């Protein structure tokens, strides 16, 4: 990571530099046998670039337009998500005739910005920028855009969907919906106090460490996802593990949303990441299959290999 600063929080129309890469991410697949293509994309944001991966089916041809799902990762994660759950979801969506874009938020994954660039405000801005890029992509049906968010990514999806009419379907996984008035203390008052004193704080998350800026805490403090999602009226899917201590917050999300087409799917015995790092992939596959099937039913369900 470099030390770039001056990150702005406004959303601008996106311009992408696209690099076509070898298809066939699925184990054992070859470029000839793969039924989808993947592109590394660089989406221009104000003062920095958002790295992403755009996946689309081969069926329908290179000029087809596909309904598309934008994938929003969680805190201290990256665009493929833990256990490659987003990469695998992208392949499942492609098999059903849907494209997808998964991105690295500022300071995450392949982003060249420092970890301290990662804030809630920045995540929301990056999401809106990515939606703008999708609407300009000739392989995307601009009238059929969905969001899926994992953990804090679902919180971001709630905020964006509640204010952005471009979003037509939303799915959330293990989503943290606590109001910002208390949520900013998620790492304890000591972490916040250190950030106030030093401008940043190193937090041990258990699976890795991450340096959070004071701006991160202040942006969480001013966030109100349950109020935001009240403005969203489209289809909504909430998935959680029964053993994830935050899962009841998804019920709050469904209650608060303005949607009349809501589905709650609880994976029994699952933790926050659906035991995706275990040998048994049953729970993780349940989440991905349920999500892909739900989008196929709710987001342009008439689609057959694009338009």
Structure explained in plain terms:
The chain is an alpha/beta fold and 307 residues long. It has a domain at 65-179 and 223-298: Alpha/Beta hydrolase fold, catalytic domain (Rossmann fold). It contains 9 helices and 11 strands. The chain has helices at 85-95, 120-136, 152-161, 180-183, 189-198, 214-221, 225-228, 248-256, 282-298; strands at 16-20, 36-45, 48-57, 66-72, 99-103, 140-150, 167-173, 200-204, 209-213, 236-241, 262-267. It has a 9-stranded mixed sheet, with helices on both faces. Strands 8-9 form a two-stranded antiparallel sheet. Helix 1 crosses helix 9. The longest helix has 17 residues, at 120-136. The radius of gyration is 18 Å and the shape is globular.
What is shown here, in short?
The chain has 307 residues and is of the alpha/beta class. Helices cover 29% and strands 25% of the residues.
| Overall pLDDT confidence | 89
Helix content: 25-40%
Give me the CATH architecture of the domain at 65-179 and 223-298, please: 3-Layer(aba) Sandwich
Q: What about the largest sheet?
A: 9 strands, mixed
* CATH uppermost class of the domain at 65-179 and 223-298: Alpha Beta
Q: Based on DSSP secondary structure assignment, what is the total number of beta strands?
A: 11
Instruction: List the uncertain runs.
Output: 1-31
Strand content: 25-35%
- End-to-end distance: 40 Å
CATH superfamily of the domain at 65-179 and 223-298: Alpha/Beta hydrolase fold, catalytic domain
CATH third-tier fold name of the domain at 65-179 and 223-298: Rossmann fold
Order of strands across the biggest sheet?
1-2-3-5-4-6-7-10-11
Number of helices: 9
- What structural class should be given to the helix and strand makeup? alpha/beta
């Amino acid at each position: 990571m470099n030390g770039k600063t001056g990150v702005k929080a406004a959303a601008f129309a996106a311009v992408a530099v696209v690099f076509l890469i070898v298809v066939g991410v699925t184990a054992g697949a070859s470029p000839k046998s793969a039924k989808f293509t993947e592109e590394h994309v660089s989406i221009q944001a104000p003062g920095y670039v958002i790295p992403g991966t755009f996946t689309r089916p081969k069926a329908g041809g290179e000029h087809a337009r596909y309904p598309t799902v934008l994938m929003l990762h969680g805190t201290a994660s990256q665009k493929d998500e833990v256990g490659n759950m987003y990469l695998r979801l992208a392949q499942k969506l492609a098999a059903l005739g849907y494209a997808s874009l998964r991105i690295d938020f500022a300071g995450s994954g392949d982003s060249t910005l420092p970890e301290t660039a990662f804030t809630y405000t920045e995540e929301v801005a990056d999401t809106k920028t990515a939606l703008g890029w999708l609407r300009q992509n000739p392989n995307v049906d601009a009238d059929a855009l969905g969001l899926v968010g994992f953990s804090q990514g679902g919180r971001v999806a709630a905020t964006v969907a509640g204010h952005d009419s471009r979003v037509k379907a939303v799915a959330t996984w293990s989503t943290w919906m606590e109001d910002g008035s208390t949520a900013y203390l998620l790492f304890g008052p000591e972490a916040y106090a250190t950030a106030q004193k030093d401008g940043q704080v190193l937090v041990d998350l258990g699976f890795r460490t991450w340096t959070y800026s004071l701006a991160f805490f202040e942006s969480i403090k001013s966030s109100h996802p349950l109020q935001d999602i009240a403005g969203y009226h489209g289809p909504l899917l909430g998935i959680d593990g029964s053993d994830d201590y935050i899962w009841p917050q998804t019920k709050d999300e469904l209650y608060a949303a303005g949607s009349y087409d809501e589905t709650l799917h609880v994976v029994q015995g699952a933790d926050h990441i659906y035991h995706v790092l275990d040998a048994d992939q049953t729970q993780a596959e349940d989440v991905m299959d349920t999500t892909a099937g739900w989008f196929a039913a709710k987001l342009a369900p008439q689609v057959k290999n694009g338009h």
